Amino acid sequence: MYQQIILIGNLGNDPELRYTASNVPVASFSLAVNRSWTGQDGERKDKVTWFRVSTWNKQAETVNEYLRKGSKVMVIGEVEEARVFTDRDGNPRGSLEVKAQNVRFMDSKSEGGEGQPRKGNAAPASQSEVDDEAIPF
Questions:
Q1: Which of the residues 10, 28, 73, 118 has an alpha carbon 20 to 30 A from that of 58?
Q2: Was domain 5-134 assigned CATH 2.40.50.140?
């Protein structure tokens, strides 16, 4: 059996780097994947789906060093599990957990993306900023 998911979106937060008991680096971040379409009524509609992405080993350290909130990436990985939670307004929500096999940086170098190490709390690299209130975790 085999499954794979490919996601393109923007980081909802700076990656969080930690180490397992056996000193293996793990970086996690939330990823907002946006979908837009025009409804039958002619109105433009938008939907954001959130994923929680984990990266491991050297890739985790690279993600932590170069990515930040707002960075655009492509993630290729496997769906681990769904997580159910209640948002700030009491509405039931869900998030899919994804174990990344590959993370590709999609920001251009001129936007402060790939090739530019993260320095402190830098501004988001893309113009499609993510609203803090919309982040489910």
A1: 10
A2: yes
